[in-house]
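Standup notes
- DV: blocked on the single-chain target, sequence here:
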Amino acid sequence: MGFLLDNCTLKLYNQELIDSCNPFDCDHQDLNDFFTNDVDNYSSELLGKTYCFTLDEDPTIIVCAFTISNDSIKTTHLPNSRKKKVIKEIPRPKHMRSYPAVLIGRLGVHKDYRNIEGEEERTGKQLMDFIKSWFIDGANKTGCRFIVVDSYNEIGPLKYYTRNEFIPLFSTEEQEKEFTGLPSEAELTTRLMFFDLIVLAKE
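- DV (later): unblocked, structure below
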């Protein structure tokens, strides 16, 4: 199956786990701060749930972590060209103004566990494949057509999500600023991207 599922265990990421584990370091200051200091507050306010994989041979090591919450893609907020891209695989009788989605709010892989010797796929790819599989599983209790992410507008994160077949919700930064109400001179620190789960559900 791969390093992540064969050698690690999925757990709820909470303060009790944080206190029992070594510090999680994914080499990104903002993410490290969230996974160290903000997870419990985020969860207690019902804004999202955070999970992680810990190493079986040493459960004090957090290999990767991610936060998810409910979201939607509202096509009324999209330019026509992007709206067509989002709904192209959806039959016309089922067109709606808003489509159910899950938001990956935070995602990080420990800097020492990104490349595992002998593994064809990097840990980050295995983690994303796991998340995708969660929401097409028959046991999933709610409809979820898309996975969306507000990726850091940085080369590394954008490349990661693109490699995992995510598509920008807006074709240009200028377009995204306009539709999110940012002034044109403002810096766009994140980019909205999406993945259509129907691709996997039909396999």
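- Follow-up: The helical segments are 3-7, 15-20, 29-44, 80-87, 123-134, 155-163, 173-180, 198-201.
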